[in-house]
Design a protein that fits this description.
There is one protein chain. By secondary structure, the chain is an all-alpha fold. It has one domain. Helices cover 74% and strands 1% of the residues. It has helices spanning 3-9, 13-44, 52-82, 87-94, 99-111, 117-129, 134-146, 149-159, 161-184, 213-244, 251-257, 265-273, 280-292, 297-309, 312-318, 324-349, and strands at residues 199-200, 203-204. A two-stranded antiparallel ribbon has the order 1-2. A hairpin with a 2-residue loop joins strand 1 (199-200) and strand 2. The longest helix is centred in the N-terminal third of the chain and has 32 residues, at 13-44. The protein is globular, with a radius of gyration of 22 Å.
């Protein structure tokens, strides 16, 4: 390689300084996000943290900033990384006969990334854009909110090793099998086309060969701006809906209609769980309270899975990148797996 090409391949000083400043600013905003809204909403405005209004207002502003920051970071990083590897090559490595292995790896990655359902969407967009097979990416999207180390620790503390292992095993099976089944259906045509396009300085490019580091950084910035402009209304609507129903769950309705005597109790639990929005750690206190009232463990696990893996705010956000048919198929496959787990556990643990 000539000296001129070597110099051209390195990032410019200006580009490195801008990148470094952006990284520092990103981390600073992410760190102060929760303390700032704690102070503003609870101390300055005076709303009570335990009230529906206080927790809802805090939830909306905190999650709006958090998810936006995640979108910016993940989209920029993935865009720069995928500029070194073509979509076709990525699919060749992760697709075909390795697709089942890819589903297992994606589900495992989801377990160690403790995202809520909406926080997992930025990574999902980045993986799809990078050419990772859709079914493999959906395994990650299911597993990330469904099974994580925080939920495992809390579930073990509340219910012991048996229900914890059942939950983890069932969550991984749903993520792996659900993603594999969805991948075999070849649903890529129901992903919005802009997700697969690569832009540089306002133009769609077919090849990233020969790009400089400054070009790749520019691609990352443009991709962040492009995707945020497309999805921000869906992002805010989804988070606003999550804030409105944050912390709400009809305990009396549960005990009356989803008890052990009702053969449709698992179905009712899943239907109640989908509109709600919480991570696994946030929903566990309610699960414990319902368990003390005598609800079957399979019904409670199905409810918990529906809340964290099929939240309505997540589906609203996904609508900007996935067409309705794909969203409906995704919900159908995952819901079928959750229902099967609920009824199976109720039969085994009866």
């Amino acid at each position: 390689m000539s000296a001129s090409l070597q110099l051209r391949a390195r990032p410019s000083t200006r580009g490195l300084v801008a990148l470094g400043a952006s990284v520092v600013a990103w981390f600073a905003l992410y760190v102060v996000n929760q303390p700032f809204w704690d102070w503003l909403v609870y101390d300055v405005v005076g709303l009570a943290p335990e009230s529906r209004l206080g927790s809802g207002v805090h939830f909306f502003f905190y999650d709006s900033i958090k998810i936006t920051l995640l979108l910016i970071g993940v989209i920029f990083l993935v865009t720069v990384l995928r500029s070194f590897m073509s979509v076709e090559r990525t699919r060749a490595v992760l697709g075909g006969r390795r697709e089942g292995v890819g589903n297992v790896m994606a589900a495992g990655l989801g377990v160690v990334t403790p995202f809520c359902s909406c926080s997992a969407v930025p990574a999902f967009i980045g993986f799809v854009a990078a050419g990772v097979p859709l079914g493999v990416t959906l395994s990650f999207l299911i597993a990330s909110p469904l099974v994580n180390e925080v939920a495992i620790a809390l579930l073990f503390g509340l219910f012991g090793i048996g229900p914890t292992l059942l939950y983890v095993g069932a969550g991984l099976v749903i993520a792996i099998v659900g993603g594999f089944v969805l991948g075999r259906l070849r649903l890529e045509r129901w992903v919005e086309p802009f997700v697969f396009q690569t832009h540089l300085r306002g133009r769609v490019i077919d090849s990233t060969v020969g790009l400089t580091w400054d070009d790749r950084f520019q691609m990352g910035r443009e991709e962040v701006g492009s995707i945020l402009r497309r999805i921000w209304p869906y992002l805010l609507v989804g988070i606003a809906l999550g804030a409105a129903i944050h912390g709400w769950a009809p305990e009396d309705f549960f005990t009356k209609y989803a008890g052990a005597s009702n053969p449709f109790g698992v179905v009712i639990a899943v239907l109640i769980g989908i509109p709600l929005y919480s991570n696994a750690a946030g929903i566990l206190p309610l699960v414990e309270a319902l368990h003390e009232k005598g609800l079957p463990m399979g019904t409670l696990l199905a409810f918990m899975m529906a809340v964290v893996a099929l939240s309505l705010p997540e589906l609203i956000l996904l609508r900007r990148v996935l067409k309705p048919r794909l969203i409906a198929t995704f919900v159908g496959v995952v819901a079928a797996g959750i229902l099967a787990v609920g009824y199976l556990f109720n039969a085994v643990l009866a």
